[in-house]
Amino acid sequence: MDAIVVGIDVSKDRLDVCVTPSGEAMAEANDAAGVEKLALRRPG
Q1: Across-strand partners of 20?
Q2: Which residues span the domain enclosing 11?
Q3: DSSP secondary structure string, the chain?
Q4: At a CB cut-off of 8 Å and minimum separation 6, what does 3 contact?
């Protein structure tokens, strides 16, 4: 099974996320709502 790696670049206002090997990328606000959106997100 291939490893799935998630990188999160944290700044004051934004969370930039990249997933490998899928190459999926997303960004959310660095606040409670943005963190919750990322926590509830499913691969795909």
Answers
A1: 5
A2: 5-40
A3: ----EEEEEE-SSEEEEEEETT--EEEEESSHHHHHHHHH----
A4: none
Q: Which two three-digit tokens encode residue 30?
A: 């660095």
pLDDT of residue 42: 81
Domains of the chain: total = 1
pLDDT at 20: 92
Of the candidates 41, 34, 33, the one whose C-alpha atom is nearest the C-alpha of residue 15 is 34
- Residue 15 to residues 1, 2, 4, 21, 42, Cα–Cα distance (Å): 28, 25, 19, 19, 17
Q: What is the pLDDT of residues 7-44, one digit of tens each?
A: 999 999 999 999 999 999 999 999 999 999 999 988 76
